Amino acid sequence: MTDPLETRPSELADLGPRPRRKGIYVLPNLFTLAALFGGFYAIVMAMNGQFEQAAYGIFSAMVLDSLDGRVARMTNTQSAFGEQMDSLSDMVSFGAAPALIVYEWELKGLGKLGWIAAFVYCSCAALRLARFNTNLGVVDRRFFQGLPSPAAAAVVVGFIWLMETSGFKGGLQGSWLAWLAFGITLYAGLTMVTNVPFYSFKDVTLKRSVPFIVIVAIALGIAIINIHLPGALFGLFMVYGASGYAVYVWKRLKGRPVSVIATSTDEPDEEGLHR
After folding, report:
1. What gap in Å lies between CA 95 and CA 152, rounded to an integer?
2. Considering the domain boundaries, does residue 195 fall inside one?
3. Residue 64 near residue 38, CB atoms below 8 Å
4. How many structural domains compose the chain?
5. If residue 269 lies in a helix (H) or strand (E), which one and from where to where?
6. Which residues pair with 143 in a beta bridge?
7. Closest by alpha carbon to 192, among 122, 116, 258, 128?
């Protein structure tokens, strides 16, 4: 008798060619893994009380996170796996890591209020990323819906970096610094889940010609950043973190729609959506 589990070669041929296994693109995911390592490194440094090193990890993760998508598009290696990997990396580097860093730095001195503020930030980052993934096809590409998580992380960790380099060490300055960190953490976290529009800079291209004054402004910006890097970065991201509210108020005063969600592709007010 023939073993019923035995399959003959002719029967295998009848089944047709085996489906090709799906691979993973290495290059863009290397950038994503490097960004994830930056967030993990920041957490480890914060646990050891080295908060300036933790800031280096977060800002390095920001640079790497901005590159992985561009590398994928340039090399035509976009994939669903890469998108999910990027979201998980962002949750660690710009969600969990900043919350843990600011808690270890100063918020733990506030007791329950401290870890509640850190949790609010962390949970808002998760909600922000989930909403971004689900609304990706219906949001005006020129704007983000709420403060992007990398910018929120830069506000929180940039503040810590500025204080550390200015001589205001966490846990040694009294309650005023703890409450200031509490306020900044809540502001950054809650702003991530608002519907306030933040300019995405996705329509900016280096191929266009610009007025000469733009080059002068860039040179001045580089000079200012080099004077005091932590202060310049914190100031830059604080301005960006408030810019969305300014755009919201300006659109309200002009009577223009403030939502970045498209409801129809035919409405003139929604020009630029679904691109």
Report:
1. 9
2. yes
3. yes
4. 1
5. none
6. 199
7. 128
Q: CA quadruple 7, 10, 15, 21: dihedral positive or negative?
A: positive
pLDDT at 138: 72
**Which tokens belong to 124?**
């808002």
Tokens 């890469």 — which residue? 82
Distance of CA 237 to the CA centre of its chain: 12
Residues 87 and 269: their CA atoms lie apart, in Å, by 31
Residue 171 lies in a domain: yes
4 inside domain: no
How crowded is residue 67: how many other Cβ atoms within 10 Å of its Cβ?
16
Residues 255, 123: contact at Cβ < 8 Å?
A: no
Strand partners, 144: 198
Per-residue pLDDT, 241: 94
**Calpha distance 155→32 (Å, rounded):** 21
User: What is the C-alpha to C-alpha distance for residues 78 and 72, in angstroms, rounded to an integer?
Assistant: 5
Instruction: Tell me, yes or no, whether 262 lies in a domain.
Output: no
Whichever domain contains 230, its CATH number is 1.20.120.1760
CB-CB contact of 108 with 163 (8 Å):
no
Q: Are 69 and 28 in contact (CB under 8 A)?
A: yes
Distance of CA 68 to the CA centre of its chain: 12
pLDDT digits (tens, 9 = 90+) for 17-71: 555 555 667 788 899 999 999 999 999 999 999 999 999 999 999 999 988 878 8
pTM of the shown model: 0.82
Domain that holds residue 125: 26-252
- In tens, the pLDDT along 189-241 reads 999 999 899 988 876 666 677 777 878 888 888 888 888 889 999 999 999 99
CA 7, distance to chain mean position in Å, is 52
